[in-house]
Amino acid sequence: MARTVVPLTDPKCEAAKPRAKEYKLFDGQGLYLAVKPSGAKVWRLKFTRPDGRAGLATFGNYPALGLKAARARRATALELLAAGVDPIEHEQRQREAAHVAAGNTFKAIAMQWHAASARKWTADHAAKVLRRMELYLFPPLGHRPVDSLKVRDLMAPLKAAEQRDTLELAGRLRQYTTGVMRYAVQHGYIETNPASDLVGATATRKAQHRPALPLGRLPELLQRIEAYKGRTLTRLAVELTLHVFIRSSELRFARWGEVDMPRSLWTIPAERDAIEGVKHSERGAKMRTPHLVPLSRQALGLLGQVHILSSRFDLVFPGDHYHHKPMSENTVNAALRRMGYDTKAEVCGHGFRAMACSALVESGLWTRDAVERQMSHQERNTVRAAYIHKAEHLEERRLMVQWWADYLDANREKHVTPYDFASRGEGAGKVVPVNFGRVV
Fold this sequence. Notes:
This protein has three domains: about 10-90, Integrase, DNA-binding domain (Double Stranded RNA Binding Domain), CATH 3.30.160.390; about 105-200, DNA polymerase, domain 1 (Orthogonal Bundle); about 215-440, Intergrase catalytic core (hpI Integrase, Chain A, Orthogonal Bundle), CATH 1.10.443. The protein is built from 17 helices and nine strands. The protein has helices spanning about 10-15, 65-80, 85-100, 105-115, 125-140, 150-165, 165-185, 220-225, 230-245, 250, 295-310, 330-340, 350-365, 370-375, 380-390, 395-410, 420-425, and strands at about 25-30, 30-35, 40-50, 55-60, 260, 265-270, 290-295, 435, 440. The longest helix has 20 residues, at about 165-185. It is elongated and about 115 Å long. It starts with 9 loop residues before the first helix and ends with a strand.
């Protein structure tokens, strides 16, 4: 006859004292409290596995796991056994699933994606991406397993950014989310990428192009530059920007060691030595590869004048107050405003690039590849980009920049269209070397 078991009570569990040997207090249906000599009290369940073997499950220590909770664990285990499932194996699978899920969260995958992507990013950009994810993506998504995320989940932080009218940020977050989920697909965490359906999910701001003067106003611009009464180095910076049409940071952070006057060539490095206390001073060519800038006779003459003023410094265009720091990023635009231009609506320093590009294209003289290389534009077709990067088109670009400089000279008194100037067969003269301060 089976022994009758009197169910345990909390007072009885609490009153159990340790003995020289471990002993058991039974609650029935295989559940008992093992009292160890050390005083520890452990809940265990003795049962028969579906395959007939003896099984012993450990639930936890008393009183952390109370009597009521231990009985609930027993009930769950008995339900599994009734369904032919081994509770020990079931718990082990759950632990494994939890372990996998911990490495399968959006944050965990995002950190893997970031580490892989950061190899091709600058340190500043990598830090900015990580900071944005920490602020805007990880709070709502970081703890979620990637295989549980739906389009509506991924859209939530984007919509939050959109509602704050930070549309550029919303677009960036969409890019990061898509990249993270694509990484998850590629590494077998999920089968399909729900972020693919985020395209067009948020509003975008209409692109604002940098203002540029129509070429018909070139005579006016050139006359205002010539009549400029401000700092001489500033006037030369404005005029040189118009001649070489490079980007603001490429000009501001330029060092004299980059300019090879005998070869009529300015080599903008991929990265420059940082200047202490000057933000982004390590920037070189925007495309992160050295950019060769052939120089016209007129550009060399301008650089010769600049050399007289700043050759004792490392920087080509030092600041007005501290020679070891570059001129302000607003210097060229501030000068244009003093000349009477609205730099938000009429023309800004960056707009000189659009004016030069427009004239070069309208002339009909130059190949697209040479113009794009001179402008240091990023080729969107990666295969084509590899060829363009190797093909500098330097000789054609030497003729091109000389034609542009001669075209500017032709417009000092009266406007001439690029096509008319090209049709005359003018420009594209021989590029000659120059000594500092005077053209040879």
